[in-house]
Amino acid sequence: MDSTVVDVPEKGRFEIRVGERVVGLASYHVDNGQMTLPHTEIDPSMGGLGLGKVLVAGVLTAARERGLTVLPYCSFIRHYIQQHPGDVELVAAEDRKHFGLETADR
Predict the structure, then answer these.
(1) What SS3 string covers 36-90?
(2) Number of folded domains in the chain?
(3) Residue 91 DSSP one-character state
(4) What are the tens digits of pLDDT across the range 51-97?
(5) Measured between alpha carbons, how far is 95 from 73 in angstroms, rounded to an integer?
(6) Domain of 73: which CATH number?
(7) How far is it, in rounded angstroms, from Cα 83 to Cα 48?
(8) CB 13 within 8 A of CB 25
(9) Most CB atoms within 10 A, among 28, 38, 49, 103?
(10) Per-residue pLDDT tens digits for 78-88
(11) What is the Cα Rg of the chain in Å?
């Protein structure tokens, strides 16, 4: 399935699209060098296809490219970071304990 992750800053979200159809989103806002990530969702009809992981990977890549740290309030994003230790560095060291990520990079 061909999907793309697109930043839509005027809506404060990244979208994942299959063709022209928006099938999921990750809301965000940026302030003082931090990208706050409160929520993600995938259309239930598209569940189980790995699109959530593709979306989160795209969001974290964008944060890394922009030199931002992330505040993963969304539990799906936190779980993704726990499963991908190379992305723990995107959460500032002083914030990792708050998100249960203090040992995720070990």
Answers:
(1) EEEEEEECHHHCCCCHHHHHHHHHHHHHHHCCCEEECCCHHHHHHHHHCHHHHHH
(2) 1
(3) S
(4) 999 999 999 999 999 999 999 999 999 999 999 999 999 999 999 99
(5) 11
(6) 3.40.630.30
(7) 17
(8) yes
(9) 28
(10) 999 999 999 99
(11) 13
State the CB neighbour count (10 A cutoff) for residue 16: 25
Q: Which residue has the tokens 């994003």?
A: 77
Residue 103 lies in a domain: no
Residue 105 in tokens: 């990079």
Count CB-CB contacts under 10 A for residue 10.
6
In a domain, 44, yes or no: yes
Look at residue 102 and tell me if it is in a domain: no
Please give the Cα distance from 66 to 30 (Å, whole number): 11
**Structural domain span for residue 76:** 3-96
User: Helix or strand or coil: residue 19?
Assistant: coil
